[in-house]
Structures are given as structure tokens and as C-alpha cells.
Amino acid sequence: MSDRKIAVVTGGSRGIGRAAVLSLARRGVVSIFTYNANRAEADRVVALSAEAGARGVALQLDVGDAGGFAGFADRLTQALATLKAERFDYLVNNAGTSSASGLQAITEAEMDALYAVHFKGPLFLTQTLLPLINDGGRIVNISSGLARFAMPGRIGYGAIKAGVEALTRYMALELGPRRIAVNVVAPGAIATDFSGGVVRDNPHVNKMLADNTALGRVGGPDDVGPVIAALLSDDLGWVNAQRIEVSGGIQI
């Protein structure tokens, strides 16, 4: 049996998820991470993970399709077997999609899609994978600064992420008997390709957000990935049911 810790990270081929996988690799943690459609980027993360110090394994998964979770669990079990393991230690529910609609514009279909990916997905994927998580393991869900403060055009996304924060507390309560700690990380404005790359590529938006952040800039994936990795470590083993905002002090 492998004595290395193993993490499952959804949405690990890009952005914050990729930064988490590579941060974990630098700590010697093996990651089985998911990607939705871009296999080439997933393969790149596998290579970067090996360079950083630990193996990475890429599996395809649409987190918005809960009907595929049982099949994913079977493929995950096979991947674990290649690592000489039966279970894994850490789960990071990171995969997500964006929304830029306000109250008057958001549609039922858009709201249903947000719910499927950001709330229903983490809930039922965690439920499905519980038999494969080691007792004493750790789970990190991903929220957003937008669950704390409001900005125009984010009504669906921000409200769903607030739900993820409540979900995290309930998970922590119910998984306590198994000594599984559950926390939620809430990034602020992060310069990635998320939401069409607006924070990264639009100078006006970037400056507006930086001007409203105490540390004077927007964040990057490498500001968040190491925090996720740290929350999964034994060093922070007594932190449970907490919301950790990683935003540089936006909208204080």
C-alpha cells in the first residue's frame, strides 16, 4: 500500500484547481484531478505535477452531471489501484462555471446550471465518494468573496456560493464522527481565464478591483492554491467548519 497522501481535486486542469494540484505536489501529495473537456491542458498538469514532486492522474468528469458520479467512482477506484491504494485522503470540490447575470437578466436555465455545478455537484459527489475517503481525511469546498459582498451581475453565482458555505458547515457536522474536517475557501478577484478572463484581461475591471483591495492588487491562482494545500495538511488539522477568505482584503 502507498504511504503517500492522495487528493482528489475537481477542475484541476486550470486556474485555482491547477495551482492547488501543483501546491499539493510540492508537499508530496499525489493528486487525482478532473477536467471537463481540455485533455491537452490536463496532460500538461500531469507533467507539471511530476516536475513539482508528485504524480498526477487526470480523469474526465462533468461535475454538473450527477448521474455520472457512480461511474466516476468506479474509474477513481481503478486509478487508486494503480497507486496501490484503496482510498484517498483529501477532496477539493473546486470545479466551477461563471455567471454575469443580474436579477432582471438571469434565466431559469442559467440558475439551474449554477446549482448543478456549484451546489448539487459538490454535495452529491462528496456523498458518492464518502466510502473511498479515509477516516481522518479533509475536504475543502470553494466559495467566493461574492458570498460576503455583492456586486452587479453576480446574483446567481454569489447566492449559490453562499449556499456552499452553509453546505460546508453541515458536512463538517455530519462527518465529525469520522474525524473528517470540512472547510471552505472563498477567493476574491483572481486573474485567470474564469468568466472570460475579465479580471485578468480587462484593465478597467482589474484596476477597479485592485483599488478596492487592501493589498492593492487582484490575486492570482498561486495566491489561493497554497492555502488549499495548507488546509489539507496536518498543520491545520484542528481547523474545521471555517470560511477562509483569500482575497487580499477586498471590500473590507
List the helices and strands and how they pair.
Blueprint (H helix, E strand, L loop, with lengths): L5 E4 L5 H12 L3 E6 L3 H14 L3 E5 L8 H14 L5 E6 L14 H22 L3 E10 L12 H21 L5 E7 L10 H4 L1 H9 L9 H11 L11 E4 L6
Parallel strand pairs: 1-2, 1-4, 2-3, 4-5, 5-6, 6-7
Helix pairs in contact: 1-2, 1-8, 4-5
What does this structure look like?
There is one protein chain. By secondary structure, the protein is α/β, with parallel strands linked by helices. It has eight helices and seven strands; from the N terminus they run E-H-E-H-E-H-E-H-E-H-E-H-H-H-E. The chain has one domain: 3-Layer(aba) Sandwich (Rossmann fold), CATH 3.40.50. It has a seven-stranded parallel β-sheet with strand order 3-2-1-4-5-6-7, sandwiched between helices. Helix 4 packs parallel to helix 5 (155-175). The longest helix is centred in the middle third of the chain and has 22 residues, at 108-129. The mean pLDDT is 95.
- Mean pLDDT, rounded to whole units? 95
Number of helical runs?
A: 8
Helical fraction: 40-55%
H and E order: EHEHEHEHEHEHHHE
**How far apart are the first and last residues' alpha carbons, in Å?**
47 Å
Number of domains: 1
Low-pLDDT segments: none
